[in-house]
Amino acid sequence: MIMLVIGWTTIGTAAAANVMARSLIENQLAICVQIDGPITSLYRWDDEIQSESEFRLMVKFQSDQAKPLETHLLTAHPYENPEWITAEATHVTEKYLSWAKANSNPLSL
């Protein structure tokens, strides 16, 4: 059964976030991409604590698009080790799910 999945990644600039979001939609890998930011991310990299301004992309897609979407995202992402975390939606209203299916890659239906 095809499910709705939500994935998150971050990227360094608003322009890069828009390019990534547009490429996911144009390639019919994602149904919707929402961009938040700027946000502040704190993390450890090369054994030092880093603090960076980033933009978060929340990507909604059908489960059968998970592999091609991940491949595209990891190939196009400018980061050496980009964040990509996903979770299956446990409940989606029927009307929204119908819209999502209607706006997905026709090969995946």
How is this fold's topology laid out?
Layout: E1 4-11, H1 14-26, E2 32-45, E3 48-62, H2 66-76, E4 85-88, H3 94-102
Antiparallel strand pairs: 1-3, 1-4, 2-3
Structure write-up:
With 109 residues, the chain is α+β, with helices and mostly antiparallel strands. It has a single domain (4-108), classed as Alpha-Beta Plaits, CATH 3.30.70.120. The protein has 3 helices and 4 strands, in the order βαββαβα. The protein has a 4-stranded antiparallel sheet with strand order 2-3-1-4. A hairpin with a 2-residue loop joins strand 2 (32-45) and strand 3.
C-alpha Rg (nearest Å): 15 Å
**What's the domain count?**
1
Please report the total strand number as a whole number: 4
The 3D shape can be described as: elongated
CATH architecture level-2 label: 2-Layer Sandwich
CATH C-level label = Alpha Beta
- Mean of residue pLDDT values: 92
The helical percent reads 25-40%
Count of helical regions: 3
Identify low-pLDDT runs.
none
Strand count, sense and closure of the main sheet? 4 strands, antiparallel
Briefly, what is this?
Helix content is 30%, strand content 38%. The chain is α+β, with helices and mostly antiparallel strands.
Keywords:
109 residues, alpha+beta, Alpha-Beta Plaits, 4-stranded antiparallel β-sheet, 3 helices, 30% helix, elongated
